TrEMBL record:
Residues 1-26 form the signal peptide. InterPro entries: TPD1. Pfam families: TPD1_C. It comes from the Eukaryota. This is Phd finger protein. One of its GO terms (biological process) is cell fate determination. Keywords: Signal. PANTHER family: EXPANSIN-LIKE EG45 DOMAIN-CONTAINING PROTEIN, PROTEIN TAPETUM DETERMINANT 1-LIKE-RELATED. Coiled coil: none annotated.
Length: 125
C-alpha cells in the first residue's frame, strides 16, 4: 500500500520532469527561429544576392524549412539547396535537416526577391 503510493509519486515526478525537460528544449529553440539573410554581393545589372538560410538553434536540428520566396524562379538555384514548390513557397535542403547552427548559402542574379521563413520544425529529441 505504502509502496504503491511512493511508486505513484515517483512516477508522477518523473513524468513532470520529462515534460519540463522537453518543454525546456523546445523553448530554447523557439527564440532562435531560422533566418533568411540576403546580402548584395554583385552591383551590376542584374545585381547578385547572397542568400543564407541558417538554423540558429544551437541545440536541435530543424527540418522542413519553408521560405516565402515570392516569384523566385528555379532557374536561379540548384533545387537540392532551395526548391521552388509554388508561388511564395520554397523549401530549403529538400526539407532535410539543417544541423544546429548549419547554414545553407547560394547566390542568385536577379532583382531582389523578398524572402522570409514561413514554416519549420525543430527536432529536439
Ligand atoms: C509574381 O508573378 C505574378 C504572376 O506572374 C504577377 O502577377 C506578380 O505581380 C508577380 N509579383 C512580383 C512581386 O513580381
Ligand atoms: C556568391 O558570390 C560571391 C561574390 O561573387 C562569392 O564570393 C561567394 O563565394 C558566392 N557564394 C556562393 C555560396 O556561391
Amino acid at each position: 500500500m505504502l509502496n504503491q503510493t511512493v511508486f505513484k509519486l515517483m512516477l508522477g515526478a518523473l513524468l513532470a520532469f520529462a515534460y519540463l525537460f522537453n518543454q525546456g528544449w523546445s523553448s530554447k529553440c523557439a527564440a532562435d527561429i531560422p533566418t533568411v539573410k540576403q546580402t548584395q554581393v554583385g552591383f551590376k545589372k542584374p545585381p547578385i544576392f547572397l542568400v543564407e538560410v541558417q538554423n540558429n538553434c544551437p541545440m536541435c536540428p530543424v527540418i522542413d524549412v519553408h521560405v516565402k520566396c515570392g516569384n523566385f524562379s528555379q532557374d536561379h538555384v540548384n533545387p537540392n539547396l532551395f526548391k521552388v514548390l509554388g508561388h511564395n513557397d520554397c523549401v530549403v535542403n529538400g526539407g532535410l535537416p539543417l544541423a544546429p547552427l548549419q547554414k545553407i548559402s547560394f547566390n542568385y542574379s536577379h532583382r531582389k526577391f523578398v524572402m522570409s521563413p514561413s514554416i519549420w520544425y525543430f527536432q529536439c529529441e
